[in-house]
Amino acid sequence: MLGDMDEAEDVVQDAYLRWHQADQEAVRSPEAWLVTVVSRLAVDRLRRLNTERAAYPGPWLPEPIATDTPAAPSALPAPDRRAELASDLSVALLVLLERLAPEERAAFLLREVFGTEYAEIARILERSQDAVRQMVHRARTRVHDGRPRVATPPDAHERLLERFLAALAADDERALLALLAPDVALASDGGGRVHAARRWIHGAENVSRFLFGVVRKFAQDGTFRLTTLNGEPAVLVFQGGVPTSATTIDVADGRIRAVHSVRNPDKLRRVLEGVGPIV
């Protein structure tokens, strides 16, 4: 809902305090009470965050988090868990959700991720069922239009990321262009703290030129490692043992249609667990 772990934890803590201050004997359904409070707090928090993010220096990307760790437990088998996380937490999806109004985003997530009934969503958001149905329909259309029709299997996604890194390491422009969709887009989030592109970059030629420029300037000082962030393959770049960027790719029809690179140091605090072998 918020795309930021600290903000999410603040909302949960606020809800926890309200729960302990409430008349719990009067609460008929603790789960419904908690979902309502958390949802409303998240909507209010997102309204404030939208104002802050509008003034953010350059593209704003959600915080990447390690998900192949004991900190992300699940009863699901590992492959199913990864697919579930990639579906619900992928950077590409979170970027799409940023286009939705706060109540639209809440309605969409409650319905599509948690399977909440329309009547319950209407009660939570204090809107009519018809209004909620319209919100979910609009949000579903906008999100689904921005996602590939056929999901890429995790192993194919990982192989494409490896080929992407190999092309950059070999300084092979032709190989990289063959991996990029013609309308590929790239966002680099430096948060005003470090060097990054101040705008989205569009088109295979422009994205390729930018990436090779970055690699030629900084690669000699960096170490690349594969990991899993937000349930999908990702690459971390380290300089002096410190992570300086986390990059994920959005894939459709066997090609890369978006590159999301987080360089803001404030957003790289939760990427170290589950780091894979050096590439």
What is this structure, in a nutshell?
With 279 residues, this protein is an alpha+beta fold.
Strands, helices and their partners?
Layout: H1 5-21, H2 30-54, H3 78-89, H4 91-97, H5 102-112, H6 118-125, H7 129-145, H8 154-169, H9 173-179, E1 180-189, E2 201-202, H10 204-218, E3 223-229, E4 232-239, E5 242-252, E6 255-262
Helix pairs in contact: 1-2, 2-5, 3-4, 5-7, 6-7, 8-9
Descriptive overview:
The protein is an alpha+beta fold and 279 residues long. It is built from ten helices and six strands; from the N terminus they run H-H-H-H-H-H-H-H-H-E-E-H-E-E-E-E. The chain has helices at 5-21, 30-54, 78-89, 91-97, 102-112, 118-125, 129-145, 154-169, 173-179, 204-218; strands spanning 180-189, 201-202, 223-229, 232-239, 242-252, 255-262. A six-stranded mixed sheet has the order 2-1-6-5-4-3. Strand 4 and strand 5 (242-252) form a beta hairpin. The longest helix is centred in the N-terminal third of the chain and has 25 residues, at 30-54. The model is unreliable at 70-77 and 274-279 (pLDDT under 50).
